[in-house]
Amino acid sequence: MKPVAAKLLSSFLVAAGLLAVRPAIASTDYLARPDVRSFIDSMHEKHGIETSDLERIMGAVRVQPVVVRLTTPVPSSAPSPARSYSNYRAKFLTPELIAVGSQFWADNAEYLRRVELDYGVPPELILGILGVETRYGQNTGTFRAVDALATIAFDGARRQDFFRDELEQLLLLAREKRVDPLGIKGSYAGAVGLPQFMPSSYRRYAVDYDGDGVIDLRGSAADAIGSVANYMRKFGWIPGEPPKAPVRLLPGSEADLVSGLERVHDLLDVQGKGVVFSGREPPAGPISIFELPTPGMPSKFYAGFNNFEVVTRYNRSTFYASAVLELAEAIRKAYGQRDQAFAPVVSNAAVSGFGVIVEPTE
Ligand SMILES: [Ca+2]
């Protein structure tokens, strides 16, 4: 394996080399814009980054019309196709992706074992997320993160403030990592690396898990694994608790009970309204009731617990979190690692004499 420090240096040189041979595009127009100027001024004042550096970076931004298109909501007047969970899950629950995930588990077995001990997060959850996000690194994104973030921040249809903040975070991240921000690649929304962290999450939650002194979510599977586990733990993953359970609702009670992502229900309350749970005993705490619809078929309904909400902190979607958990379970079965997905862990996060799992020491 190539040392990461050398890799960073070479990617910096590649970026610099590209800049030398490629003429800047539309730089003067972009730098003349008041909103871009004000961003540059605030980056200089808040963080002390040289104005000339900021002008070099922002002057090199290539606005990406495709990014605007991909991030612009469809007008509500347009006919919207009925949402189908069955179609959504079919993109990920493929024999091919399950096989790649199992191989990824085998290749990174040591880190995935350790991560469960360190963070109390089961390996299959990490595999579900990395599979849905980037197919284990096959699709980490081909846009320059600066282009994607600046395009949405200054020419996007919505959430401009959010993406301006992420652009700020990206420039700070590049400074900390001592790489040229123009060399960082990501998705059309500026998400980076195997786990597709936004720059703010990268700075807040990413960890160096292979211990080489560098955090590298694109080149190090170990760093990606540790970082996703840290993210899940920080957002409140509770070791050993199931994320969701299938439920049966009384006919006609759907409108009253389905709450989507919101955990607004009390267990006894919904049981009083005729909701029947299957599987293990539901954990304590408020629950959501969500629906996975497929046109032409009866909807499936589930109760979402704390750990389901944690997965949706990665992406606010019941489809997303459900597919992640299904993929996780399929890979765990294929890998033949355990009898039960999301089983309680015994860890150096310490199980007390009374069987209560307590916080890991860091
Ligand atoms: Ca590392």
Explain what the structure shows.
Residues 1-27 and 343-362 have low confidence and may be disordered. Helix 5 packs across helix 10 (145-155) and helix 9 (123-134) packs across helix 13. By secondary structure, the protein is mostly helical. A hairpin with a 7-residue loop joins strand 5 (288-292) and strand 6 (300-304). The protein has helices at residues 4-21, 27-32, 34-47, 51-59, 65-71, 85-90, 95-107, 109-119, 123-134, 145-155, 160-177, 199-205, 221-234, 254-257, 267-272, 306-312, 318-335; strands at 143-144, 185-186, 244-248, 276-277, 288-292, 300-304. The strands form two sheets. It has a four-stranded antiparallel beta sheet with strand order 4-3-6-5. A two-stranded antiparallel ribbon has the order 1-2. The chain has 17 helices and six strands. It has a domain at 10-73 and 141-187: Helicase, Ruva Protein, domain 3 (Orthogonal Bundle), CATH 1.10.8. The structure holds calcium ion. Residues 208, 210, 212, 214-216, 220, 223 line the site of calcium ion.
